[in-house]
Each structure stands twice: as structure tokens, then as C-alpha cells.
Design goal:
alpha+beta, 3 domains, two-stranded antiparallel ribbon, 20 helices, seven-stranded mixed sheet
Length: 483
């Protein structure tokens, strides 16, 4: 009996130790997952600059190569094959470094004409994503108009910097909506629950606090970090460490952990969105998707992101006890641990991204063949999460600010998630398909006898109220004003 108790204690201790190791890795993975390719490249270079135990992999620097190992996804979603490998040297592309982080089983992709920053045609994907989320909130007609105005008032960082009073005045003047500050404030709170987390905040401070609310409740630093950002944000942003330690009665090590937690948050939740007035948004594709022999070739694009590894000099130093200053060795041990964690998180990022992209293509094969948005099937983040056996929040991180390069142009992954409903014929259809069909019917109408909402409802098989709602969202006047 005593031996069984000991074994149980050992098992529990091992599980607890594994959880302690996995939790930081999961947090690190979530942080890098949410980054766009440009942000990820900058983060890699920042890590190289700040952690001496992490270094660029210059092994075989004279003959650096990468491999295109494309995953072929056919109509049978469970079958993934490997395409023929092709090898490129750095001289093939103007002596630019060609590198990736991937383990051998991760398909990667490099083409200087397709990994460079390009213009995306869908400038409003960020706004449309927010509007899609708003459409599922069961807002009243008045709240819908308020929400629409709030989304249009977000700045390039995704913040709503105008006061409630100013917003009320502007809505009444420009949109004919009379609303109290309380009514607007209630809709702002709803907006702040949307993805990406932190959108709709009035400033960086509020955005970070909102994001901390989404950190695991059992994280012992969450409440402390919220308190510091709430009552000591000025000292925090100016890095007045001694003041913060004294004010909140914590030691420097705890404060370092708080800073590490907050650095994992997104300071610009709307950072990759396009302004409605901008002519184009330059982005770098994260994936390449092509139809090949009836299936799909899916690969990651890495551009010029350098390959990293843990320094062997540092690992040898921490493993050697002789002649080492204990304080120096402890610092080096921490740096090696952080470097290993970062490399593991990057590799996991790639696996998760590729698994997610494969699942999306598996659920939307018609769209990726034709590029016609009316062919999009109803799809939620949970649908994808169920396929890859991850949490929907992980899928949210993958699709946030990510783009796929396809034969018909760059596509925002977030824009592929479509809400659905059942029409009067009992068919499940997407809102996107209904809007497209509605636009086609109106564009083809007789200007002298425009089609009415009742007629649209009958042809589309949906309720008249739904037609009126979508028509307003699409800024299409009523029939009598279209003559």
C-alpha cells in the first residue's frame, strides 16, 4: 500500500512538472501565433538581439538552402502526401538568405516574387470581420447602427479614442442616430468582446487590461499585472522599476515576470487592418495554396526570417560546473532556457499554422478552386479547432492577421469564416452568399422598376427583415430611392 502511495505521488509530481513545462510553451506559442509575418520576423530579430543564448544558425552559411516540401491535400481530407522536393541555393535569389525554422515534416515555401510584401485586394477584411461578429450578437436595430458607426471610427491600431460624448454628437450629426452616452457605452462593451482581443479600447492601457482578462484565471500574475496597469501604468511604461516594486510590494523577479506576461499581449490589435481611405495594404503572405492534380498544395511562406538555434557555447557553459561563477552560470542557464522555449514555440507555431491551413482548405475546397466567395461554406473557428484537436482560441490566433497566396490573389484567412442560417427552403446558407446574390439581383434590376425588399426576400428565400438588414449593411438605398 505504501509503495502504491509513493508511485501515485511520483506520478502526480511528474504530471505537475510536465504541466509547468508545457504552460510556458503554450503561452509562448500563443504569443507568436498571433503575429503577422512582418511582426514575427521583427520578433525573431529582437530575440536574437536580446538573448545571447539564441543565435542565427550560420552552419553551412556558404551553401544555405531550403526545401519546398508541399503537403498535397486531395478531396479525401485525411490523406496528406509529400510532393517532390526541389532545392534552391542562396545564389538563386540574388544571394538573399533562404532559411526556415521547420523540422523535416513541415512544408515550407520560398519564392521572392510571392513572399515579398504585396497589395491585398480585400482592404476591408478587418472591418468585415468585426461586422460579421456583430451580426451574431442579436443587437437591436438601434444598436446595429451604433455598432456600425463605432467600427468605422476605430483607428489604425484598433482603438476607439473618441469620448462617448463626441461619438454621440457625431452619430447624431452624420448618421442621424440619437443615442445617449449610456447606450453607446453598452455597445462599446460588446465591441470589446470581439476578436482580436483588445479591439475597441480607448487606448493601449485599456486594451492590455482587456487582454489580461482573457489570460487563464489560474495564472498567478494576471491580477497583479492588471493592478499594476490600472494604478501604475505611467510608471510601468516608463520602466520605473523601483517605484513599482515599492508601491506594489513585490520583488524585482516578480516584476520581471509581470513584464514578460504583458509583453506577450498585442499592443496593436488592429495593426494590420487597412484604412478605408487607403489605396492598398502591403502584406506578406503566410501561406501558399495551389490546386495540383485535383488536390491542393499547401505550404508556409517564410520570406527572409532568419533561422535560429540555441548557442552551443552557452549550453556547454551551463552544463559545466568547473571554473564558473555561480551568478553568471545562473544567468546563462536562464538565457538558455528562454532560447530553448522560443525555438520550441516557433516550431510549434509552424505545425499549428500548417494544420490550421490544411483544415481550412479541407472545409472550403470549392472556394480555393474558384476564388468565388459565394462558394464559401458555413465555417466557424470551432469547426477548424475540432479537426486539428486544438482550442478555438488557438485557431483565432492562427487566422488573425494572416494571408494566403492563391492563384486568384491574396486572401485574408479571417474573412473565410462565415456565419450561416437556414433559409425558408430549409437550406443552410452563408450570409456572404446571400449578400452576393442580393447585390447581383439589385445590379440587374430595371432602373425604372427597382426590385423591392419583398421581392428580394421571395427570391432569396429569407425574411424581409433580413433583406432590409443586409441592404442597410451594404449601404443600398430602398427601392424608391434607386429609381
Amino acid at each position: 500500500m505504501q509503495k502504491q502511495v509513493i508511485r501515485e505521488k511520483q506520478t502526480l509530481a511528474q504530471v505537475e512538472e510536465q504541466q509547468q513545462v508545457l504552460k510556458p510553451l503554450l503561452q509562448a506559442e500563443v504569443r507568436v501565433l498571433r503575429m503577422s509575418q512582418q511582426e514575427f520576423e521583427q520578433d525573431v530579430r529582437t530575440q536574437l538581439d536580446t538573448n545571447p543564448a539564441l543565435e542565427e544558425d550560420d552552419e553551412n552559411a556558404e551553401d544555405i538552402a531550403t526545401h519546398d516540401e508541399d503537403g498535397l491535400l486531395d478531396d479525401s481530407p485525411t490523406e496528406i502526401e509529400s510532393a517532390e522536393k526541389s532545392e534552391f541555393s542562396k545564389e538563386d535569389y540574388d544571394n538573399e538568405r533562404i532559411n526556415d525554422y521547420s523540422p523535416d515534416d513541415i512544408p515550407t515555401y520560398y519564392d521572392p516574387d510571392r513572399t515579398r510584401e504585396r497589395v491585398i485586394a480585400d482592404q476591408t477584411s478587418f472591418y468585415e470581420s468585426l461586422k460579421e461578429q456583430a451580426a451574431s450578437c442579436n443587437l437591436t436595430p438601434k444598436q446595429e447602427r451604433i455598432m456600425d458607426y463605432l467600427i468605422g471610427s476605430l483607428d489604425e491600431d484598433g482603438f476607439l479614442r473618441k469620448s462617448l460624448r463626441v461619438l454621440c454628437d457625431e452619430m447624431e450629426i452624420y448618421d442621424g442616430v440619437e443615442a445617449t452616452q449610456q447606450e453607446v457605452g453598452e455597445v462599446v462593451k460588446i465591441l470589446q468582446t470581439f476578436e482580436p482581443v483588445g479591439v475597441g479600447a480607448k487606448d493601449l492601457q485599456e486594451s492590455l487590461i482587456i487582454q489580461l482578462d482573457n489570460v487563464e484565471a489560474d495564472n498567478p500574475l494576471r491580477d497583479l499585472a492588471k493592478e499594476i496597469l490600472t494604478r501604475g501604468f505611467d510608471d510601468y511604461k516608463n520602466k520605473r522599476y523601483n517605484k513599482l516594486c515599492a508601491r506594489f510590494k513585490i520583488d524585482s523577479e516578480t516584476l520581471d515576470r509581470v513584464y514578460s506576461l504583458v509583453r506577450h499581449l498585442n499592443p496593436r490589435p488592429g495593426g494590420s487592418m487597412a484604412s478605408a481611405d487607403s489605396a492598398a495594404l502591403p502584406v506578406s503572405p503566410d501561406f501558399s495554396v495551389e490546386e495540383v492534380d485535383g488536390g491542393f498544395s499547401i505550404s508556409l511562406c517564410h520570406g527572409h526570417i532568419p533561422k535560429v538555434k540555441v548557442s552551443s557555447v552557452y549550453t556547454d557553459f551551463v552544463s559545466s560546473a568547473s571554473g564558473a561563477n555561480s551568478a553568471e552560470q545562473e544567468t546563462a542557464r536562464r538565457q538558455v532556457s528562454e532560447a530553448r522555449l522560443y525555438v520550441a514555440a516557433v516550431k510549434q507555431r509552424q505545425r499549428t499554422m500548417l494544420d490550421t491551413m490544411r483544415a481550412i482548405v479541407q472545409l472550403q475546397p470549392e472556394f480555393f478552386r474558384e476564388g468565388d466567395r459565394s462558394l464559401l461554406r458555413p465555417m466557424t473557428q470551432k469547426d477548424v479547432a475540432d479537426i486539428i484537436h486544438r482550442d478555438p482560441s488557438t485557431v483565432s490566433g492562427v487566422v488573425s492577421n494572416k494571408y494566403a497566396d492563391t492563384p486568384f490573389g491574396l486572401v485574408s484567412l479571417a474573412s473565410l469564416f462565415t456565419q450561416s442560417f437556414v433559409n425558408q427552403q430549409g437550406e443552410e446558407v452563408t450570409r456572404e452568399a446571400v449578400r452576393i446574390k442580393m447585390r447581383e439581383l439589385i445590379d440587374a434590376e430595371d432602373p425604372a422598376n427597382p426590385i423591392t425588399d419583398d421581392e428580394l426576400a421571395e427570391q432569396l428565400g429569407i425574411a424581409r427583415r433580413t433583406v432590409a438588414k443586409y441592404r442597410k449593411q451594404m449601404h443600398i438605398p430602398v427601392a424608391r430611392l434607386r429609381r
